Amino acid sequence: MSTTSLNAIYLSRKALLIGTVFRVVRDAQTAEDIAQESYLRVARAIRENPVDHIQAFLFQTARNLALDHVRRQTARRTVETALDEAEADRVPSLAPSAEQALMDREKLEALERALGRLPARARRVFALSRVEGWSYPRIAEALGISPNTVYNDMKLAMGACVEAVQRLERR
Questions:
Q1: pTM higher than 0.70 for the full model?
Q2: Domain 98-170: which CATH class?
Q3: C-alpha distances in Å from residue 92, one per residue of 48, 95, 104
Q4: What are the residue boundaries of the structural domains of the chain, listed by start?
């Protein structure tokens, strides 16, 4: 048989061929691609060797290509899953260890105690600067004090924090 016969069979059975492939690959675009690839391979094959049953040959070629596609997809997913799992094992946890969490909690409590012992204005200056992100001139204006006083209160608060952490680290 000839390429003309293949063309007639392909055009008349194209929807059936795509449907057959779709049942294997479960993707419409892939099914169309495989049907076209099947046509091209059969066209090459019949130029080299005569084929008696072109329709059966076309459908068998399509089925084989569909099964090959599924095998490749399955192998690719298996490799990707293995790589994902291996990669996940190498990624360090971002969560602190129980020991680190305890140390952080102790440090926070020590800082809270140190700040609690400061005069009220120094605590307020510290909070406005470090928590609210205000500049020293803005704090001075808001509290009605000089920028130099803001600087001194911050120096006092920061010194108390450093001392509290150092005391904790010496234990």
A1: no
A2: mainly alpha
A3: 58, 9, 19
A4: 3-90, 98-170
